[in-house]
Design a protein that fits this description.
single chain, alpha/beta, Rossmann fold, 2 domains, 14 helices
């Protein structure tokens, strides 16, 4: 469905179709930044809700042939002003329109902050992918792709992997879309296998980009990484690569977690051993080289760097005062609430906000899209060099605005992104 919103005669709370904790957080962050920058009210109201929202329901046939489940899916495009929209697709049992809309909004600011030629988008299917067989997952993906085919395309909206999806899912999306147009269209998705036009370095890009920024933030703070400790929440794609690259930078990893447990070793965890354990068992639980702790205990460990790389709303007003880190480097989307932000600011914790910290993924996705449209492959060294340059440039612009305008890092990053989008909207004008 295409949504038309009239902010001048509707209160935010009236638009219950988007209502969710994540979307409220995204709106609150935006409104805080908009007030500080005195954003034009007309532009503010247009950016407060997504420009296009599609909700679909479709059948998913299980391997037990007689069993058919009705599944709900979403694709949200927040801003169409900046060029094609860009954003991941997540498969999770708690996905809803509000969550997807929040992620699309954050993606808009993220792309603008990185100066990428995209607006923000996001997609999702409300299902637990861990309970699907490979054949069920493929059927689900292909049917979902058909349901959203009318609003995606290499010049319209380019999906990518997110929580619960991977390069294989992207390959199925690419193939399904290509079958409809009659020829291979690798540029319809990013984060796909290299053999199908995927980019070198894309899989580890979010974790690598986060560590690039941790290094910059450490230099800014006068922190010696080789004498520093880190705790990483989450051991998925982002968390595991963050741990790996932090260890390569000389940081001692003293705590990690996944859905099964948290692990703590004050003398440092052996990263290769952890990765081998995950390869063999799939989860961290049962790892012999550390003590098991709860998620709440993990977040409160004394460390120099805390990197939340799991789910949203992990750091709240209830536990923010108990955090014992010098730097909070956000690899997850929306891990910190607005109330927790203020507590951490008062504690003088240096925050690398999510729209900056986890932007490595969309940046290398941009590189992949460019390579596909040009039919030209870049080397891994070239990709990493370009990623480093873009990430550091965005970090420096954010720090400069933070210092110049006496703002916290999240608000500074938000304003950097919002300002670029607002300028583009005003220059393009209003149709008709």
């Amino acid at each position: 469905m295409s949504s038309t919103i009239h902010p001048f005669d509707q209160d935010i709370d009236d638009n219950t179709e988007w209502d969710s904790p994540m979307f409220r957080l995204a709106q609150q962050q935006f409104l805080k930044a908009a007030e500080i920058m005195s954003l034009d009210e007309n532009v503010r109201d247009r950016l407060l809700f997504p420009q296009r929202s599609l909700t679909v329901s479709f059948p998913c046939r299980r391997d037990e042939y007689a069993e058919v489940e009705t599944v709900f899916g979403y694709r949200v495009q927040h801003v169409l002003t900046m060029g094609p929209t860009k954003g991941g697709i997540r498969y999770h049992q708690d996905v809803n329109l509000g969550e997807v809309s929040a992620l699309a909004m954050w993606m808009t600011w993220k792309c603008a902050l990185m100066e990428l030629p995209f607006g923000g988008a996001k997609g999702g299917v409300r299902i637990d992918p861990t309970k699907l067989s490979r054949s069920e997952l493929q059927r689900l993906t292909r049917r979902y792709t058909m349901e959203i085919t009318d609003i995606i395309g290499p010049d319209r909206d380019i999906p990518a992997p997110d929580m619960g999806t991977n390069e294989q899912v992207m390959a199925w999306i690419m193939d399904t879309y290509s079958q409809q147009v009659g020829y291979a269209v690798p540029e319809i998705v990013t984060g796909k296998p290299v053999v199908l036009g995927g980019s070198l370095g894309r899989t580890e890009a979010t974790g690598r980009g986060l560590v690039y920024l941790i290094c910059e933030a450490a230099n800014h703070m006068g922190m010696d990484l080789k004498k520093s400790t880190a705790v990483v929440q989450g051991f998925g794609n982002v968390g595991s690569n963050t741990i790996r690259f932090l260890a390569e930078s000389g940081v001692k990893i003293i705590g990690v977690s996944d859905v099964s447990t948290g692990l703590h070793n004050p003398n440092g965890l052996e990263v290769n051993s952890l990765l081998e354990h995950i390869d063999q068992h799939g989860i961290l639980k049962g790892y012999a080289g550390a003590s098991e702790i709860s998620n709440s205990e993990l977040l409160e460990l004394k460390c120099d760097i805390l990197a939340p790389c799991a789910l949203q709303n992990q750091i709240t007003s209830k536990n923010a005062s108990k955090l014992n880190c010098r730097m909070l480097a956000e690899g997850a989307n929306g891990p910190t609430t607005l109330e927790a932000d203020q507590i951490l600011i008062d504690k003088e914790v240096f925050i690398v906000p999510d729209i900056l910290g986890n932007a490595g993924g969309v940046t290398v996705s941009y590189f992949e899209w460019v390579q596909d449209t040009q039919n030209f492959t870049w080397s891994l060294e070239e990709i990493n060099d370009r990623l480093h340059k873009i990430m550091v440039g965005a970090f420096n612009r954010t720090v400069l605005r933070s210092q110049r305008d006496k703002l916290d890092m999240r608000t500074a990053a938000m304003i950097e992104g919002i300002q670029r989008v607002a300028k583009a909207k005003l220059l393009r004008g209003l149709f008709p």
